[in-house]
Amino acid sequence: MMKKSIFTLLFLAVMGWVSAQSLQFELDGQALENGERVICTEALDWGEMLQEMQVRNLTDGVIDVVIEKEEIQIVEGTSNYFCWGNCYIPDVFVSRPVALEAGVVSNQGDLSFHHQIDPEMSGDPANFISGTSVVKYYAYPDGNEEDRVCVEVWFAYNAEGISEKMAYSFGHAYPNPASSMVQFDYELSSLANASVSVYNLLGQEVMNQQINNLQGAVTFSVADLNEGIYFCNLFVNGQTVKTEKFIVKK
């Protein structure tokens, strides 16, 4: 009995270590969930949208933090860049590492995401381009992309229907860890081409399921999957709107 208890404690400790994240994004002093969406709607006078954020080191050691961007949807004529230590031109997608001390959150203004909606930089609102651009930003320790967190920023300038696009919910995986099956609760305002996909750590899609009801649960069998960490993405109209992580343990 004692051996079984010790094994259980060790297992829980290991699983906690596997699922723990070294970094987290924060906005206005509040921690963001991994994959959480942030909406930016205000444009500065010179035709740029700005979303400042912070990243916190959750460990007891120094981390060389890398920021990476992934452009999901960019309105024609607009461009996107970010600043982390330095500001990078739109063609740069991965930053140089910046050291962040143990338990420390980055200074306000050190991390910022920029979206240029006036290609002429004229400052004339008549030249501002309307629409919604979606960009994902990742933070991870240099050399360890598996230990990454994500925030999805919607740069929505005079965008119609954005409230409708946001109308969804997608619950955490359960059970987690999973051995035979895993389930996700969801609720949508419409069935506008919604689906759920499961990916391994290599980014390979291993399962997919179309959503045919406004609410319910999506269930996947994981019996044939290898042990490890997986990510489940909810897609609406071809765009990733939520990502949940789960572990397969047999």
Tags for this entry?
48% strand; six-stranded antiparallel sheet; Immunoglobulin-like; 2 domains; mainly beta; disordered N terminus; five-stranded mixed sheet; 250 residues
Give a nutshell description of this structure.
The protein is mostly beta strands and 250 residues long. It has helices at residues 2-19, 162-165; strands at residues 23-27, 30-31, 36-40, 48-57, 63-73, 79-84, 86-87, 98-100, 111-116, 131-141, 149-157, 168-170, 181-188, 194-199, 205-210, 215-221, 228-236, 239-248.
Q: Assess the beta-strand content as a share of residues.
A: over 45%
Unreliable stretches covering 5 or more consecutive residues? 1-19, 161-166
Radius of gyration over C-alpha positions, nearest whole angstrom: 20 Å
- The CATH superfamily title of the largest domain: Immunoglobulins
Strand order of the largest sheet: 2-1-4-9-6-7
Topology order in helix (H) and strand (E) letters: HEEEEEEEEEEEHEEEEEEE
The count of β-strands is 18
Helix content: under 10%
Identify the CATH architecture of the largest domain.
Sandwich
Which CATH class of the largest domain is shown? Mainly Beta
Distance between the termini: 21 Å
Q: What is the overall silhouette? A: globular
**Tally of structural domains:** 2
